What we know:
- By secondary structure, the protein is an alpha/beta fold.
- The protein has 2 domains: about 5-225, 4-Layer Sandwich (Metallo-beta-lactamase, Chain A); about 240-415, Aminopeptidase, CATH 3.40.630.
- The protein is built from 11 helices and 20 strands.
- The protein has an 8-stranded mixed sheet, with helices on both faces. A 6-stranded mixed sheet has the order 1-2-3-4-5-6.
- β8 (about 140-145) and β9 form a beta hairpin.
- The protein is globular, with a radius of gyration of 24 Å.
Amino acid sequence: xxxxxxxxxxxxxxxxxxxxxxxxxxxxxxxxxxxxxxxxxxxxxxxxxxxxxxxxxxxxxxxxxxxxxxxxxxxxxxxxxxxxxxxxxxxxxxxxxxxxxxxxxxxxxxxxxxxxxxxxxxxxxxxxxxxxxxxxxxxxxxxxxxxxxxxxxxxxxxxxxxxxxxxxxxxxxxxxxxxxxxxxxxxxxxxxxxxxxxxxxxxxxxxxxxxxxxxxxxxxxxxxxxxxxxxxxxxxxxxxxxxxxxxxxxxxxxxxxxxxxxxxxxxxxxxxxxxxxxxxxxxxxxxxxxxxxxxxxxxxxxxxxxxxxxxxxxxxxxxxxxxxxxxxxxxxxxxxxxxxxxxxxxxxxxxxxxxxxxxxxxxxxxxxxxxxxxxxxxxxxxxxxxxxxxxxxxxxxxxxxxxxxxxxxxxxxxx
Length: 415
């Protein structure tokens, strides 16, 4: 599997770039400057070599290569960097870019081609069609990782060159665009072809996205997924601890403010249940400041996120994503799930619902294709680690509510 420093197209804030680490080697697929800013936060103590596979020389793909070379030389104590061009022609262009424009010295890095590089994870570069101004200079890559064939399209206007490499069990990382252009794959047009690939047992991940929200709407309910973003280290480290008595009042204030009345249980009941049921009431700390909480209900191998909230002034800072990553480690080996309001274009908070679902999907949750009724509200279930069966859910709810509440409040999976 590949991980991504960014999956955005040319005009996004985070440009498309993937990576993996094998045998103390860091391998990058393209290196825009936005990705370099993230890659330099990695722990390089156990990295012995950096390889950069280049798909083409547009700035949103190659603009950070010179900075990575200089960072490896001056900051990482001459850590070797090999820049891999997909062809001799692109190799010559990269030589001009790095030596004459970026001002790198030839002993700071090695420049080679995909054919010359002898690595078991690199099979070959695949020529494709993208911008006419870079005719015959745009490529994807055929990789072999963890026993799987992986196809990475790079930027392309056609899918045809990559199809012969795909078979059951392969993984395809393909670019796509919501808006039409003649240099990218237009998702509304290519969607039936991608869905047909998934039916053949090929896992398809979408990258180089120009409008994630609209793309998520188009692929809702399908087997298509967005390329997985790696949770790079943030400026504010996040940790989870058991709720302290001194934090309960802050949690109560946030709880009352963050959730609508029809979704809230009495807060005193939640406090009591953490001692009477299998509950984890966790504080989220960002650095030294209290940032929010998780209220987690457990039963056997299930963990249900009943409530999750981050203080309003600390949102949009990556704290929520980091907290979810920490929670996944906390619940490792368990099925973790949550309920969100379903997407309905007729409700007033539709865009908010889309954003919330997008947030969980990009942090590893998947659609379980199930809906649940809790009191008078219908939710959609998202989860990690596998499906949640109706009987499993009922046992979890029953163990938490007790017999009286269980009989008086309808809480059940509908499908």
